[in-house]
Amino acid sequence: xxxxxxxxxxxxxxxxxxxxxxxxxxxxxxxxxxxxxxxxxxxxxxxxxxxxxxxxxxxxxxxxxxxxxxxxxxxxxxxxxxxxxxxxxxxxxxxxxxxxxxxxxxxxxxxxxxxxxxxxxxxxxxxxxxxxxxxxxxxxxxxxxxxxxxxxxxxxxxxxxxxxxxxxxxxxxxxxxxxxxxxxxxxxxxxxxxxxxxxxxxxxxxxxxxxxxxxxxxxxxxxxxxxxxxxxxxxxxxxxxxxxxxxxxxxxxxxxxxxxxxxxxxxxxxxxxxxxxxxxxxxxxxxxxxxxxxxxxxxxxxxxxxxxxxxxxxxxxxxxxxxxxxxxxxxxxxxxxxxxxxxxxxxxxxxxxxxxxxxxxxxxxxxxxxx
Length: 371
Known about the structure:
alpha/beta, 5-stranded parallel β-sheet, globular, Rossmann fold, single chain
């Protein structure tokens, strides 16, 4: 059997991408540039300021705990340990994007997201299906461990603690941390919490945690009196109608403004804002994604023009696979009765095919939708 030689694959990949660029028409390149601006846009919310304040608290506590705050004499005795910031919200609330933006924009985390550069913050996504050993091995890989086999469950966390110190990592961010709730055993769930607590309380190299995920994550350390005061929770709340109707319209205007060839005069009514909120399960991050994708649809299919309900309807069909107009909240008359959450998400099953209790966004379907 012939095997493809993968040596120099990075160079070949770059050459292939250069071929695509060199063969783009002017129209394709112009559309791609506009779509790129829209998809990469970050729209600030009230949570950006709250997130900044809570990260300030986390970092200031580090200075005090480690005796490095200028003008403050180090406390006698051992370091008491790190703190934890827990950021919660429903899927699509915008937590992960807000955190990534905060990490990339803070000077304290210089180097974040830049390959080959040191950063005191490490960000990982909790594996699903979830096990404590799988999480430990994911962190170890991110810290540079490249063994042929996974480290055994009983040995991986001492390795993780050693690597954190060697790499100078003080802050660990675990996204989708609610995956720990997939563990059915109360004993194992407690072991996950105890493992993270030990990292925070490590005498030689305490770690500060940022956990982000679904609202159930707010339970972290709440039953431990000694730890409860060391944990803060920042919830990203759902949007509401009519209270956030103007915010939705402003989101549409801000993103459309990046594409001079696209207009949005037809989308400034409360009725549209309400449909969009319902389709997005009242989550800000999904609202932004719908607007971005609708603009991209308008540009790629029609080259621009007036953004309308039809573009959003197409995007909903692409995301969910729903083809029936009566089940599309941008087209149906009785759209408030449509259970969009069931269309957007699917249950997660483990390797044995059993339900884990978690949900994930459905993969996008494009069959029969693109014109």
